[in-house]
Amino acid sequence: MSHLDASIPLLKADITIVIHEDSGAGSAQRYLLTLGDNYFLISVKARALILALLRGPETQQQLESAFAAETGSRIPAATLITLANQVLPAALFRDTPLPTRNSPFEVSATLLAPRFTARMAAYSSWLFKPRFAIPLVIVFVLMHAIVMSPANHAVHGNWTIEQACVLAALFLASGLLHECGHIAACRHFHCEHGGIGFGLYYVFPVWYADVTHAWQLQRRQRAVVDLGGVYFQAIFLIAVDGYALATGSPVAFKLSWLIMFAMLFTLNPVFKFDGYWLLSDLSGLHNLHQQVRQSIATAIARAMRRQSVPRPTLQTMILHAYLWLSACYFVYIGLFLARELVASSSALLSIDSVDWNRAVELHPGDWRNVAAVTSHLLATLAWLFIITLASVFFLNRLRLGMNAIVSGIRDARALPPRHQSI
Questions:
Q1: Which own/partner contact pairs does 375-381 have at CB distance under 8 Å and 24+ positions apart?
Q2: Helix, strand, coil proportions of the chain in percent (round to 5)?
Q3: Which residues 6+ apart lie within 8 Å of 327 measured at CB?
Q4: 196: nearest Cα among 188, 184, 137
Q5: pLDDT by residue (tens digit) across 3-12?
Q6: Comparing C-alpha atoms, which of 54, 280, 233, 72 is closest to residue 63?
Q7: Sign of CA dihedral 400, 402, 407, 411
Q8: Please, which pLDDT band fits residue 308 given cuts at 50, 70 and 90?
Q9: Residue 394: which of 404, 405, 402 has the closest Cα?
Q10: What is this structure's pTM?
């Protein structure tokens, strides 16, 4: 009769492991482990160790035999137990509660429940069929190419309070439509999804859709889910552009410009928006921000120790290209924020009591001119407030990134050199 070895960790029973489709030529095979709503990428050996533990070995000898049956090699049980405690995610152990999902939002609320979004997606997922999607994208490209120039001219023209209110409402609706696109893409691939909500990302109000289960899809399917939001906005822009061309409405032209700007911004891969996940899914590289910081730290540490540079792989070249893109983008954002801070401050200082006196003297009793000056002041203050908050956010992100790089350099220098140059 065997006695249970208390040193052997016990795992939760509801663990599933499947081959992760991202594992391609030149990269080590990885597996996707699912536990409730949590997903983990694990290596071949980690998978073998988990499967061995899931067999419920009661003795160290049984653990060694179970691991050998999975890998064909025998490793001492003490080593396997140590590896399990050090390498496996803590959430897998039976006596550890499942981790709560970290929300990127300061405040958030689900506005459309999953059952409602599922009903909506059931009526719109057909739009992702190639015979419909390809013609729609072609029509969008052709129409928006015509609209781009007048839209750019209109957005830099005069704005009225009425126009700003209408544009804000329609722009907000386009954001909701964007999230519906992600949900509909999940539905198209028969993937479970959550609801749609509204949250505060630092100081910025944003829509969000729960498509966590998209991790279960193949790489190209995940890419379609990533693009589902801008695809639905592109369909919406076909209607907006058509109305703008037919009527010459300045509001339609301005809305077209604003939505297109939002689409391009969400496709940039520097921040964790759709473009980030699209690049991650297509390249097979995950935790891009962490990998970029680690790559910089390793390169600096290697240069300080005068080590030779290994031959780059395809994924390394993609990572380096992403690094340079991120660097250029951060420089651009930094210059943009600095320029806007100076311009907004100057515009605010140029507004004084003379503007109100002139407005009243030119048209006595007509308070519309005073209202116009007041709205101009409020708009200037609002933009200065937004730019200031964005600058604080930018500088804080830069500070955190530099701290991570410095920490990575220390860790990299502490490791023993593997390839000393002669």
A1: 375/161, 376/351, 377/348, 377/351, 380/344, 380/347, 380/348, 380/351, 381/348
A2: 65, 10, 25
A3: none
A4: 184
A5: 556 688 889 8
A6: 54
A7: positive
A8: low
A9: 402
A10: 0.73
